[in-house]
Write a structure and sequence with these properties.
Blueprint: E1 2-9, E2 14-17, E3 20-24, E4 26-33, E5 40-43, E6 46-50, E7 53-59, E8 66-69, E9 73-77, E10 80-88, E11 92-95, E12 98-103, E13 106-115, E14 119-122, E15 125-130, E16 133-135, E17 138-139, E18 146-149, E19 154-164, E20 167-168, E21 172-177, E22 181-190, E23 196-200, E24 206-215, E25 229-231, E26 235-244, E27 253-255
Parallel strand pairs: 1-4, 2-5, 3-6, 4-7, 5-8, 6-9, 7-10, 8-11, 9-12, 10-13, 11-14, 12-15, 13-16, 14-18, 15-19, 16-19, 17-20, 18-21, 19-22, 21-23, 22-24, 23-25, 24-26, 25-27
Length: 256
Amino acid sequence: NVETVNYTGVQSFFNILASNVTIINVTANNLVSSSNGAFLFSDSSILVMKFAKASKLYTTELGAGFFLWKSSYLTLEDSVITDCVSKYGGSLYIFQTVNVVLNRNIFTNSSSTIAGGVFYIKSSVTLNSNNVTISNSMSPMQSGVIFINMIAKRLFIFNQTKIMNCSSTQGSGFFIMGQTDIEIRKLDISNSSISTFFSFSRNLIKILLEDITFTNLIEDSGDMVNDVIIFNGINATVNNLMITFCKPRGKVVKAI
């Protein structure tokens, strides 16, 4: 059991190096750091965190909530992460080979000043998200929810994962680039103010989208979205796509 408020420092509040650690019942508020990961920095570690409550996390660098570096493994369960601000990846920044499991978590009011309002992923990663809610996240430039830039085949599974009330002023909800195969499954997206929700770059090798639901997507101006999904020179497969209360001015799925 750990509780802290009003921490300001150069290092992260949790700095975990080459360890196998379980953290249960931690509460942290008003954390300010000038390093990557104001709340937690992990390097070559296996980390399990349960029942965490962290709010008002700020860094001028990467990942105000979590920064995962060099083969770190994270299981985060039954936790609430709110009010995060960073340059890239408001709540979570992932760099190099990582396996992330998110179970029954809430991420809300997360933002980045450049890209990846909630998550920024720059690595080979398997992300398994189960019963997770992401709401009120934003990025002024690119990817109000997730920015992915990586090489290697990776899998993203979103079982009962809901994304609500997210926005990006100039870009997409998910922006995905890199020479990789990606599978995204079981995702529920609603009430988000984003011009294009999925944007996939030309260098991607293969994409699978399966069991994706969009409800009530609008732009900041109140107009309907332009193109819901854009594929740019990609081998893409889309299965079980449902869109309700959305009237895109462009295409539901647009291939360039």
